[in-house]
Design brief:
Keywords: DNA-binding, Transcription, Transcription regulation. The protein is 46% helix and 22% strand. It has 325 residues and is α/β, with parallel strands linked by helices.
Amino acid sequence: MPLTPNLNAYLYFETVARRGTLTRAAEELSVSPSAVSQQVKLLEQRLGVKLFRRDGRLLSLTLEGEQLFQTSNTALRMLRDADRHLGKTRDTHRLNLRVTPSFGVRWLGPRLADFVARHPDWELRVDAAPDPTDFEREVMDLDIRYGTGDWHGLHARAVVHDHVLPLCSPAYLESLDALDDPAEMLDQARLIDSARAICQWDFWLMHNGIETRGNTKSILMDRSSMALQLALDGAGIVLESLALALPEVTEGRLVPVLPEIPVLMFPSYWAICPARFLNRRPVKLFLGWLDTAVSEHTAQIETVLDQHGLTIEAFDLDHGQLAAR
């Protein structure tokens, strides 16, 4: 069974080879010349070769010594570089975060100033991208991702719930005939969908037993932020979540269209990362702050629901059912 290398002996050998004498090596290492000499002798005995030719106090490398010096010098230089790098990393607090784009712009972005104010010594890098992180190839601490929680091989923690309901501008709502039948009312309207949303109009109508005559005109947008902007501009009724539309509903720029129908609630935004990352300081710090931000957000949603007389239907996600178009 091979013996474990005496790393101290290699360090002493490499220093002697660089400095040329035992005395200079001892000065660099802050030890006695006899201690350096002893380590070099032990290394020669262990390897069974002579590493130095001695000419008085001067030492020169043998062929075997030159070979060993090249290897040990490279290895020790890499260790010194890693030590310096890790020291800088320890002194510089950095969080690398990836988020779903609409969530990053509409939910996280307006709240990040609070995180920065609470943690002013931290550097923050936020990457808004539609595709999830490949944690084995990318330098990322955490990803906030929209979906159903099925992230194979990763720890997934639900952080924000969708509260889905039809919304439109007050002016657009006034343009519709006030009818008691939701189907007749929606038949007049243009329905705005977000292509990436878990819950879309076809499922929402079916779930609530609403059968339109098929007279509705539709708009399909690639991003929730674009769909919401269309609704704000009076182009139609958007089926969206208060997770993204809360500021506009709070300000009255968007209003519930059918308040008698319960708001669908289900987990939709997940913090994902390899399970081993949960012990990382940046991950624990951000998730702790996120818990506080989500609690405040939930309280604001409850206020809006009460103001509009809205009720909630907690929905148990069925990926296949909700993903069907």
